[in-house]
Amino acid sequence: MKKCKTLLLTGILIVFGFNSSKAQEDLLELLNAREDSVRDYTIATFKTTRLVSGHSVETNAKGVLNFMIGHRFGAVNTGWRDFWGLDNATVRLGFDYGITDQINIGIGRSSYQKTFDGTLKWKFLRQQTGYKNIPITATAVGAVYLNSTEWSNPDRDNLFSSRLAYHYALLLARKFGDAVSMQLMPTVVHRNLVPTKEDNNTIVSIGAGTSIKVTNSLRFNAEYYFIPDGQIASDIGGLKVRNSLSIGVDLETGGHVFQLHLTNSRGMTEKYLVGENTGSWGKGDIHFGFNVSRVFTLKKSKEFRNNNL
Amino acid sequence: MKKITALLLIYSCSITFTYAQKYVTRTGSISFFSEAPLENIEAYNNQVSGIVDLETGGMAFTVLMKAFIFEKALMQEHFNEKYVESHKYPKATFKGNIMDFDSFQPGSEQEEIKVSGKLTIHGITKEVTVNGTLKKDTNGNLEGKSVFNINLQDYEIKVPSAVRKNIADNIEIKVNMLYEEM
Q1: Do A105 and A12 fall within a single domain?
Q2: What pTM does this model have?
């Protein structure tokens, strides 16, 4: 019996001994086994902070200033005399700045209705795998707009607050694999002043967008804002308010992103896209447009500066 | 009974002996430097895992590509998205051996070593031999250092012509590891 035990023990020890010498051989596996799962954040869901005209879930990193120039030409159906719209452009200039990697502030000015805008944007959820599994990126956007055109009716008692409008949006995006990103953007636009009693001050809308990677520096984008019926009664300039639809491409070259698009919307803010767009794709109110965005790293990462390379 | 005790003793000795020969870390540093006409690019990663087996002279590293930190966030995004394609190849690895190891035990003096093995970056594996140093510090930890160069083409990392003046073909890599006894 004793012999048996000794034999058994020796056997166990030999087996164990073999195991440990075997484990020694693959050092890489040993390393992998020791590793904790890390947070693997999804990157580059979209190439820039705008899908086409509306916001994407992306924010600028801390200390990064993004300068954007947006241009929308006139409609192509205006014919040769206006050179198919090129004579007649609206412009928006804007700056976005990363206070943190997830919180951005921005200012902008559109030539349409001489409107100033201020934005606060917070990416509060990041798509990730590994340590935690979060399937989507979520960003909240709030903006205030100031229409600075002269009062159309100066004799009336005009209030400053009538110049203001707001928009709030929740952006939910997911990148599927490496190439396809989708975004949903429930959006609310509030106008302090509306033309008639029948017009809602607050318009509820749902937007959807996508970005599809074609090559490493080329992407196809689309953006649509749907406004449920019954919220807007008045025409604008004799034209019915319509849903905004834009398609475009992103071309990326180093620090620049060029976005070229075709759209039925001349404005470049959510306030315009939801409630002020009268262009119709069917009638040929198609505008060629582009955004150029250039980033400047104003503040370098502290971590980076402190690191002894 | 004596036999068992003896066996156990021998076995436990052998365990401690082999284990004492392995040194590991999860906080090693690797940095790289690209010198090009238009800009210099550097990045560092302080989460490198490494192991050295002083019994066999074996060495291994795993490097999480997304853990490289750049001066500019956009560089970091481009590095991961376009160049090393971290979504497909999340890690770079090395597995190799210290050459002429029999004649070598690290002491408190820095010793020159040559390490040869398989370096895998961007899913491509190449045989490399690099120079480095190894020494034991006063706390009994193992300090390993190396500086070597790699060619991006060897690892099929494509640089578009538009940014050829921004990114060098030849990248200098610095490795700085402090291993603790396992």
Answers
A1: no
A2: 0.84
